[in-house]
Recover the amino acids of this structure.
């Protein structure tokens, strides 16, 4: 592990690459807390908040904000933010078709929830002149297989536009019903109906667009939205890879002496395509130690190059939730000023 205290005359850099702490703090806010601790300890901080295609992708990729009024997941209009810069647009489907907009699983109508508004956002970006559109697909209310978005795009389709779907899961198209619909308020009977709908829709996509979406890894993301966009010609890519490439994260980590990442809930899934796992893998490849600060931790088998701190264990459940940024700042400052070195 690297020394914790900067040597005289040597600038030490920590890369702050956290994901959001869902429900308590954005990735940007957590990165700022890490930076305050690092700078107080005499380090230089490179802020690089990350995401995996779900909520937070918009902020991580940046750009000039735009707002478009679209149809929400259950039909009521919503004003959805998206970003654009240098011909590249970033759309986060949760802003238009998210479960939060439907009032959570208890108020959602899983059979009626639609991605129409997400299609409207993509159409707005295309009409604005974007030649590349990145669509983050986490946090959806729907299991409509992307039919709403496909309908909203209409005659525009995706011709001449590079559309990249940043997937936060590897689930395949038809499996989206059983895997995710219960989280969106669907009963067992509704799950069975939604699965049959996806099976029929996959046949329609193959007939009309000559694309078999059932075999595409990630096509079940956002209740099959990823598959619907793939039928129109979009490319499905792991969400973290999209964000990491845009941020040039591998190069930035290679210049660091420590990486600090984190999220609200760390478990085995965090290291299977999610943002924290992606950050730790890039750091491992670069030989840079990692400190993971998480709200709560439910994993025992950790990679060799990381140290993990649970805010709940360190500060108690109430403070970890209500004062998350102050807790993060305290943990990072303690690690960076500890004389025995590094993140351990």
């Amino acid at each position: 592990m690297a020394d914790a205290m900067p040597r005289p005359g040597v600038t030490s850099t920590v890369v702050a690459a956290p994901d959001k702490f869902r429900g308590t703090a954005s990735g940007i806010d957590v990165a700022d807390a890490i930076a305050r601790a690092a700078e107080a300890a005499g380090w230089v901080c490179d802020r690089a908040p990350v995401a995996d295609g779900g909520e937070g992708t918009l902020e991580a990729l940046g750009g000039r904000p735009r707002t478009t009024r679209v149809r929400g997941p259950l039909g009521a209009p919503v004003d959805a933010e998206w970003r654009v810069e240098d011909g590249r647009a970033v759309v986060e489907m949760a802003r238009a078709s998210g479960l939060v907009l439907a009032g959570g699983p208890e108020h959602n109508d899983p059979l009626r929830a639609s991605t129409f508004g997400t299609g409207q956002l993509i159409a707005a970006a295309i009409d604005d002149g974007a030649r590349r559109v990145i669509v983050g697909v986490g946090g959806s209310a729907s299991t409509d297989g992307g039919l709403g978005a496909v309908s909203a795009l209409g005659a525009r389709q995706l011709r001449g536009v590079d559309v990249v779907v940043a997937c936060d899961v590897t689930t395949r198209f038809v499996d989206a019903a059983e895997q995710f619909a219960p989280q969106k308020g669907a009963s067992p009977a509704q799950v069975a109906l939604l699965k049959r709908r996806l099976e029929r829709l996959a046949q329609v996509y193959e007939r009309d667009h000559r694309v078999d979406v059932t075999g595409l890894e990630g096509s079940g993301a956002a209740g099959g939205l990823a598959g619907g966009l793939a039928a129109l010609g979009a490319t499905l890519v792991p969400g973290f890879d999209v964000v990491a490439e845009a941020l040039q994260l591998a190069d930035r980590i290679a210049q660091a002496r420590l990486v600090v990442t984190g999220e609200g809930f760390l478990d085995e899934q965090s290291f299977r395509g999610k943002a924290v796992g992606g950050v730790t893998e890039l750091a491992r490849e670069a030989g840079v130690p990692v400190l993971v600060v998480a709200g709560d931790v439910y994993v025992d088998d950790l990679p060799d190059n990381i140290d993990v701190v649970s805010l709940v264990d360190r500060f108690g459940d109430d403070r970890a939730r209500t004062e998350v940024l102050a807790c993060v700042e305290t943990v990072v400052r303690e690690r960076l000023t500890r004389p025995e070195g590094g993140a351990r």
The two ends are 7 Å apart (CA to CA). Residues 1-10, 340-344 have pLDDT under 50 and may be disordered.
